[in-house]
């Protein structure tokens, strides 16, 4: 799930609710835990605006962007390999890579 967070943050700064809606099936507890881990690892930056109601946004750090490029490249490689295997009779299903690649292109 952390890879999904990193890839989704690549396009824009996001609030907690946006992340939770995009990452369907993740609990608030798990999302908070993973965001904290990514922040501790220097991948995600948390900005608290100190307003009422609270406004907190998450974005990628330079290291986060660097890691995101690797994840996108890995995703593209996996999609190409899946197509090769499918051409030989396998039945590999690819999920969500077009969303990932589209967001990568928004940053270029």
Automatic annotation (TrEMBL):
<keyword id="KW-0805">Transcription regulation</keyword>
<dbReference type="InterPro" id="IPR036388">
    <property type="entry name" value="WH-like_DNA-bd_sf"/>
</dbReference>
<keyword id="KW-0804">Transcription</keyword>
<dbReference type="Pfam" id="PF01638">
    <property type="entry name" value="HxlR"/>
</dbReference>
<dbReference type="InterPro" id="IPR011991">
    <property type="entry name" value="ArsR-like_HTH"/>
</dbReference>
<dbReference type="InterPro" id="IPR036390">
    <property type="entry name" value="WH_DNA-bd_sf"/>
</dbReference>
<protein>
    <submittedName>
        <fullName>MarR family transcriptional regulator</fullName>
    </submittedName>
</protein>
<keyword id="KW-0238">DNA-binding</keyword>
<dbReference type="GO" id="GO:0003677">
    <property type="term" value="F:DNA binding"/>
</dbReference>
<feature type="domain" description="HTH hxlR-type">
    <location>
        <begin position="1"/>
        <end position="86"/>
    </location>
</feature>
<dbReference type="InterPro" id="IPR002577">
    <property type="entry name" value="HTH_HxlR"/>
</dbReference>
